[in-house]
Amino acid sequence: MANQCYVCAKGTVAGNTVSHSNIHTKRVFKPNLKKVRIIENGTVKSVSVCTRCLRSGKVERA
After folding, report:
1. pLDDT of residue 61 exceeding 80
2. Is the pLDDT of residue 1 over 70?
3. DSSP of the chain, one letter per residue?
4. What is the Cα–Cα distance from 24 to 29, expressed in whole angstroms?
5. pLDDT score, position 2
6. Residue 10 predicted with pLDDT over 80
7. Distance from the Cα of residue 43 to its chain's centroid
8. Alpha-carbon Rg of the chain, whole angstroms?
9. For residue 20, is it left (φ>0), alpha (ψ between -120 and 50) or beta?
């Protein structure tokens, strides 16, 4: 599965986990991607799309 949304190009973002004692350690925020079959220019293709784009109707599912 890809690390990026096919529609909005949302990808992984680095950040920090902050503990109760305020110790910062690196972590990664990953997008919620789903492998879906979409219709693009009359053809069916299988791509990774984030759930935000699926919910908002930015792609037409096959």
Report:
1. yes
2. no
3. --SS-TTT----EEEEEE-TT--EEEEEE---EEEEEEEETTEEEEEEEEHHHHHHT-S-B-
4. 15
5. 75
6. yes
7. 22
8. 16
9. alpha
